[in-house]
Amino acid sequence: MSNSIITLGAAAAAVLAAATVAATPAAAAGEKEKCYGVSLKGKNDCAAGPGTSCAGTSTVDYQGNAWKYVAKGECAKLGGSLTALKGAKKPTPRG
C-alpha cells in the first residue's frame, strides 16, 4: 500500500473519532439530570453544600444538598428530588 493511502485512511479515522467525541457530551448532558438526596457518603457527583468543593464531598448517606447524575426520569423512581433537600433521609423509591 502506498503511504498516501495509509495517510488518507488515518486522517479519515481521526476525523470520525473527533466528531464522535465532540458529540458525546452534548448528548449525554441531555439524557441526565441532577438527583438530590440519593448518593451515598462521599459518592456524590458535585454540590454538597457550603464549604465543599465538589465530587465526593458529601459527609453522610443521602445528604439532601448533594446530587448525583442519573438517567433522565430515574430520579423520581429512586425517591430523590430534582431540587436540593434539607437534611439527610434515606429515599423511598417510587415505581
Shape: globular
Compute the separation of the termini in Å.
Answer: 59 Å
Please, how many helices? 2
Number of domains: 2
Computed over alpha carbons, the radius of gyration is 20 Å
Topology:
Blueprint: H1 3-30, E1 32-36, E2 67-71, H2 74-78
Antiparallel strand pairs: 1-2
Task: Describe it.
There is one protein chain. This protein is α+β, with helices and mostly antiparallel strands. The chain has two domains: 1-30; 33-95, no CATH class. Helix content is 35%, strand content 11%. It contains two helices and two strands, in the order H-E-E-H. The chain has helices at 3-30, 74-78, and strands spanning 32-36, 67-71. A two-stranded antiparallel ribbon has the order 1-2. The longest helix has 28 residues, at 3-30. It is globular and about 65 Å long. The N and C termini lie far apart (59 Å).
